Amino acid sequence: MLVVLFSLLLTLYLVIPEAIFRTIFGWFVPPRNFVLSKTETAYRAIGIAALPFALALFGCWYLPGMKAFPFPVRDNSSQLRRADYRTLTQSLYSDTEFQRLRTQFWPAFARCSRRQARLIFWYALFIILEASLAGELAKHFARYKANLVYKWIADKLLFSYISEWHPLLTPYSYVDPNTTVQADILCTNGTLYQGRVSQHFLKDGQLTGIFLQEPKRFDREEYLKAKSEGCDPSRSDFWKTIPSHNLSFFANKIINMNLSYKAPEQLDSRIIAKLIAAVLKRPFLPGQITITQRKPPLK
Amino acid sequence: MVTTLSDLIDMIERSTVPLWLRDQILAKSDVIDQAMRNGGSITLQGPDGEEIQIRAANHLASAA
């Protein structure tokens, strides 16, 4: 009986809160498909649950509002609490003990259930708050990533939940949301397409489809023909515009994708500064280096 | 997963730096380093007329 109770508590305190966290987090950023071992699941769940659980426990024990709401227990004291849990574990341990403590068992069980329901209520609420905060932070990664504490939290917790397709197919990594993602897509029929990624679809974190705007198709046959005729054709002349606003592709028809990210007219000076710091192998403090784009490209 | 999502994002970020600029930064790393240490500046020019000026902060201060 104790094993059943332990499994129930494990589900209530670890498995369900982790599922709540993942669902709420998914409202902010597309979540990743999870294929985790039991150990990984437990490790992740403990990481998520630790702070909300500690807050809920502290509140239910010491904070006046949380001590009695919801599901209040009359004359609730630490002595009564300890006695109730002792009665409960002893009774569940063996039938003999249960028979002996029968009269005390049910009142103790009722009080413990109310206490647990109250704790779970606050715990779930804190999990929802934590997931909302984590989702909001993950959503604005580009804005906060210069902060080392934030980056550490993102690496250790937030990114475990984000689908890898999200930063690849959206301007998620860039502060400027006008950055566009360009894709060259080779399909199973051997045709090469090009365009701007406007939408992508995920199921359980895996890519299922993609939409391209301003799509073009590479006329390989004409290109090869021109080449065989001895001309020196320019590849750019063989991209044919497709009259479609959104050209859709099913992921299972895609052989490979070449992605490039087109920044708005001005280059991101922060990224250039980062590259320079990496090449020179020395960090620059904010403001130590200034990068100015004096002339944009002529074309 | 071979790489972390953080590394993947860094890789995506680096890909927005034009190739000419990346090549010039690599080729002129010594000159850039010298300019940064001396509080100077350096201008890199792209094939289509782009110009990127890299300045050290104390260069700004002395100019002011």
Would you list the SSEs of chain A in sequence order as H and E? Answer: HHHHHHHHHEEEHEEEHE
**Poorly predicted spans of chain B:** none
Helix content of chain B: 40-55%
Please name the two chains that share the biggest interface, counting residues whose Cβ lies under 8 Å from a Cβ on the partner chain. Answer: A-B, 41 and 34 residues
Shape of chain B: globular
Distance between the termini of chain A: 76 Å
Classify the beta-strand content of chain B into a percent band: 15-25%
Give the % helix of chain A: 40-55%
Q: Pairing-aware structural class of the strands and helices of chain A?
A: alpha+beta
Summarize the helix and strand pattern of chain B as letters. HHHEEH
For the sheet with most strands of chain A, the description reads: 6 strands, antiparallel
Please tell me how large the radius of gyration of chain B is: 15 Å
Oligomer: heterodimer
The number of domains of chain B: 1
For the largest beta-sheet of chain B, the strand count, sense and barrel status come to: 2 strands, antiparallel
Strand content of chain A: 15-25%
Number of strands of chain B: 2
Give the uncertain stretches of chain A in residue-range form: none
Topology, element by element:
The complex is a heterodimer of chains A (299) and B (64).
Chain A (H helix, E strand, L loop, with lengths): L1 H25 L11 H25 L1 H5 L9 H16 L1 H6 L1 H38 L1 H4 L3 H9 L8 H5 L10 E8 L4 E12 L2 E13 L1 H9 L10 E3 L5 E4 L3 E9 L6 H12 L8 E7 L4
Antiparallel strand pairs in A: 1-2, 1-6, 2-3, 3-4, 3-5
Chain B lengths: L4 H10 L4 H9 L1 H9 L3 E5 L5 E6 H7 L1
Antiparallel strand pairs in B: 1-2
